[in-house]
Design brief:
Length: about 140
């Protein structure tokens, strides 16, 4: 590793080669560190779990079709009812262990107030699975 020379002609010229030995040393040290630490990262506890056979119990939630027609009349699975009766049914459905899915169908000419009241009643009862049903546009 000669950094200086006795030759006056080359003394002021910049050094043109890169010393790769320190870079290789650092790379080898890092490689050894990674080789040593890699097995530590894959540490797992070996367990032998018991084997049992059982059938999964898929419990599908109840589906409620709630509709509001153009006049603002509310329907629970096709049965007409008032807003107060719908709120009572929402409260009863909210207390169930598995909350039902509510499919809300509203006529396009119904006042937004009726839809907002229905959503407020369902939310107040603790129901969170509410979906809006629509028909696709015809091309």
């Amino acid at each position: 590793m000669a950094f200086a020379s006795f030759d006056d002609r080359r003394a002021s010229a910049p050094m043109a080669e890169i010393n790769m030995v320190p870079l290789i040393d650092v790379m080898l040290v890092l490689l050894i560190i990674f080789i040593v630490t890699a097995p530590l990262l894959t540490h797992a506890v070996k367990l032998e779990l018991p084997r049992v056979s059982s059938q999964p119990n898929p419990h599908k939630p109840e589906k409620i079709d709630f509709a509001i027609d153009a006049a603002g009349q509310r329907f629970w699975n096709g049965e007409p009812l008032t807003r107060a009766a719908a709120a009572e049914r929402f409260t009863a459905a909210g207390k169930a262990t598995v909350q039902p899915e509510i499919h809300l169908r509203a006529d396009q000419s119904v006042a937004y107030r009726a839809v907002a009241e229905t959503l407020a009643d369902a939310t107040r009862a603790g129901l969170t699975r509410i979906g809006f049903v629509s028909e696709p546009e015809k091309p």
